[in-house]
Amino acid sequence: MVSDNTDFRKVFLVSLLLIVVIIISYQQVNNFDFIGYDDELYVTENLNVQKGLTIEGLIWAFTTFHSANWHPLTWLSHMLDCELYGLNPTGHHWTNVQFHIANTLLLFFILFKMTGALRRSAFVAAFFALHPLHVESVAWVAERKDVLSTFFGFLMIFAYYRYVKISDLKNYVSVIIFLTLGLMAKPMLVTFPFVLLLLDFWPLKRFQFKKDRILQSDRLIFFGFQGFFRLILEKIPFFILAGVSSILTFWAQQSQGAVKALGALSLEIRVANALVSYVRYVLKAIWPGNLAVFYPHPGDTLPGWEIIGAALLVAATIFLSIRALKRYPYIPVGLFWYLGTLVPVIGLVQVGNQAMADRYTYIPLIGLFIIAAWGISELLNKWQYRKIFLGISAAIILSVMIVCTSCQLAHWKNGITLFENAVKATKNNYIAQNNLGTKLIPIDIDKAMSHFKEALKIKPDYAMALYNLGNVLEKKGNIDEAINHYLEALRIEPGHAKAHNNLGIALYKKGKYDKAVLHFKKAIKINPQRVDARINLANVLFLHGKLDEAVLEYQETVRINPEHEKAHYNLGGILAKQGKENEAMSHFAEVIRINSGHAPAYNEIGIILARKGKLQKSNDFFLKAIQIKPDYKEARNNLLILKKMVISQ
Fold first, then answer.
1. C-alpha span between 274 and 540 (Å, rounded)
2. Number of domains in the chain
3. Is 293 in the same domain as 216?
């Protein structure tokens, strides 16, 4: 407990050290970019987020299932970052680092308050701060939900500790509030009511062993709340919140097609992968090598010996931890913390195509760190040089971890470095091959094409690689081949809106107007928020004289994205042709608001003003267009015509 100035100084120094080592390890994020893997869903292509904090954004955050999740606080966090930093990635990355620092300090303080063990609490916090497996949660902007939910989760645990010490309504309500906030950032906290039960056993010691006089043996009895069911009863509101969050999450993921059907992966395959993943996470915690942003799911290819071995190892570990329940209570608590908090993401309900993910260990590894910290201290308890040995060992381990974390962090600099590492670190990683290809398109289109082909060699029915290969073929002028690849992608995944949109573009280039319009409309039907498909449809309708239909699509485009410069300009042009000059001028004015250097918009306003007889104002707009673009012939011609009009008057 922090009971005097000495303890306060120690806590302060440990906290300062933790902050320093995190900043040293993560300072290179200053130069990191968005990686283009889910970052576009959360920030770089999310118009609702990019507008910053608005009333409309607040409503959207609480009502959307975008990105197959319901996590309104995560959306609001990203909106605040856009409000503060725009699309400068440095600010977004540093917000994650700041949350990681806060989480580390909270973990240290909570463990110290609960146990009074400063060194062991500091050890756990340091491992949490610096373990390479946690780089993914911190370095990935799209994983803001991880560090944000953990922040509220730790606040919830601290509030629960206060409630145990002073059992009043205020402290109890604060537990509910922080759990609710955490679940609204990421549903990973659905297991935290169980974590509280573990903490009831150790270190809060709300029940203990005593001698049974009849059986003449130790048995578990409860005190404080007069029984185990009282402990369960007080947590019913927490379980209800967790249940509601689970239902919302499953609903969101299923509505977005993220949850795999049982037919795609049988229950046997899921259980097998879960057991093996439990063991692999431990191995990676001990030796964090070959870490990657994506680990392909093995399907039914796991060898039987590996599955059986993992099952026996998990079962034996549980059995031995229960045997150690009385003497070493931190062992079962740490083990069940690890096993239990991984349940939502271990793959029994398969979301996505990954077998496992480093980010899933952000909270669960704390359980293993607790076992290590208290276990090593217990093991060396009677050795006279224990403190010296532990101090030197801790310094060496932390130094190595800083280096390892910095090296792992370097892979997250941008999309190319990230997926190049994933290709090297894993086998048959079709998603890494595909994503590396997309990052290489602007740099080396032929190399990009080779990665798409490699992805299809691994997984021939991978619709995204077919779509991307179609894109590069179209860029190289092979329109017919591109169309074939788009069609094959849509055969596999009929709801692929981007493929419909790009197929529409390719078909239009081949002169197949009706088919192009059909696919643009399909893309819009699948995703009504796709402004690229709407603008393409509007352009085609305009070019073929269907002005009224084109106007409707342009109007919907600017409703969805009020900052769409091209849509405003084209809409203004059509309205001007239809004689709706005031409406047209308002859209040209919007273009200038969005882009003050848009010379054609000044020219168009000048034309409208001249028609209205406002010659001086018209002259000013033509001059502004010429000032922006000195070689703008149309504006110069219009200015000459205007001068003749003035002379004739």
1. 50
2. 3
3. yes
